[in-house]
Amino acid sequence: MKTAKLFLLATVALSMAVASCSNDDNNENPQPVICPTDSTNVTPPTEDSTWVYEWRPAKAITLTTSQQDIARRLSTFSWQLFAELYKRSENGTKNIIYSPFSVETDFGMVLNGMQGTAKEELLNLLGLSNISTDDLNNFFTAMSQGIDEADNMTRFSSANSLWYAQDHTLNADFQNALQTHYGAEIFPVTFTSATANDINKWCSEKTNGRIPSIVGQTSSLDLMHLINAVYFRSNWADHFDEVQTTNAPFTTAAGDTQEVSMMQKVFSHEVLEFDYTYNDCYEQMVIPFNNGAYRMAFILPRESSSIGEVIANITQNDIVQQRPDDYTLIHLELPKFKVSSNYDLRNVLTQMGCTLFSADDDCFHFFAQDNRTPTGIVHKAFLQIDEKGAEAAAATDIFLCTSDGEEPTYTDLYLTFNRPFLYTIIESSTGYPLFMGYISHIE
């Protein structure tokens, strides 16, 4: 056996340079992906033609050494927050989906309006105790710019906005940081009950309709809504064959048996790059999208291991994973699924030691005057997996209210996800987790 040391699940990575062109017939945005017969002659889109993409190898996101350190630290926090969400999943019987990228981007923005003890404590919670706000801003700037260029066949967008009461004056440094580093749209408004419709319309547009609302209601008591919205849509580097999808049993976390649509595929390194690793606690299959800039990991606990034990195992540093030398074929069975969530993260974060929502007002300088402590944070997310690929979206709102040797031996290895499992979507070059979650049952 050969081993590979991996720092957290999010950093399990092999460079992916082999991918297949694929078609997406069911969603008009992004347009269908078509393999050009001559990659040097790519026809631009017209009103009557289909967009034709030129396949390009994945472009790694360039981070400085300190920014790579920030990515590792935030990956650790991502799993810590996920562990807290799992504790609140009613003994593992509720599905989980959330976007660390969205939550942490919103935190990155709000830190620009904080000072003193509250700021120090939030940075400590994120594992960024000796990181300056400027360094964190530059990290998210580098991530956003890199994501735009990583894969021309994947749609991944991150949008930010600030909605604030126009009878208040924004702190100039706060506004400049949001616009310079996060490209935030600034909306001065008079908050009424109708403002929620405008905010939700913005959120829906930025998530392709997958998060149609992030705000329940607004009123004259609202002072600020600081929102991040992300959308992801990508095809597998090699599709699952729909003809091979069959009905199969899935045992839920509650012990019930469901009949689900089970996708099937045999993976071979001679055809497609992928990564299968295992340890005594769980097995993990990592599948690339398109050119490999993005990948999705599926984690199946051993029969003798619980989901909680797997989460604890993943969050340990310097985990040793194993890869068998003699296998070539992975027979994968994976259910199609769709999951959505709606979290009030204030209590979750407070339980983790976050004092953001209880600090003194003078720890904040969002406005030139009349500053207040943030009231709460809400997060919504969506994910759908099928034979062609994945679609995911999320939104986060922090708000204020006045109140690739030798020819291998062919061995078959079977991996069937017919019981609860974990998953995460990551950016390959940095290992940064964009979405992660848990499947208790199939919806």
Walk me through what this model shows.
With 443 residues, the protein is of the alpha+beta class. The protein folds into two domains: 154 residues, Roll (Alpha-1-antitrypsin, domain 1), CATH 2.30.39; 200 residues, 2-Layer Sandwich (Antithrombin, Chain I, domain 2). It is 23% helix and 31% strand. It has eight helices and 18 strands. Strand 9 and strand 10 form a beta hairpin. The chain is globular. The protein starts with a strand and ends with a strand.
Tags for this model:
6-stranded mixed sheet; 8 helices; Alpha-1-antitrypsin, domain 1; disordered N terminus; 443 residues; alpha+beta; Antithrombin, Chain I, domain 2; 31% strand
What is the percent of helical residues? 10-25%
Which whole number gives the mean pLDDT? 83
Residue runs with pLDDT of under 50 for 5 or more positions: 1-52, 404-408
Tell me the count of domains. 2
Topology diagram in text:
Layout: E1 2-6, H1 65-87, E2 96-98, H2 100-110, H3 116-125, H4 133-150, E3 155-165, H5 172-182, E4 185-189, H6 195-206, E5 222-235, E6 246-251, E7 257-268, E8 275-278, E9 282-288, E10 294-301, H7 307-314, E11 319-323, E12 329-335, E13 337-344, H8 345-351, E14 376-385, E15 389-401, E16 412-416, E17 421-427, E18 433-439
Parallel strand pairs: 3-4, 12-16
Antiparallel strand pairs: 1-11, 2-18, 3-5, 5-15, 6-7, 7-12, 8-9, 9-10, 10-17, 13-14, 14-15, 17-18
Provide a quick synopsis of the model.
The protein has 443 residues and is α+β, with helices and mostly antiparallel strands.
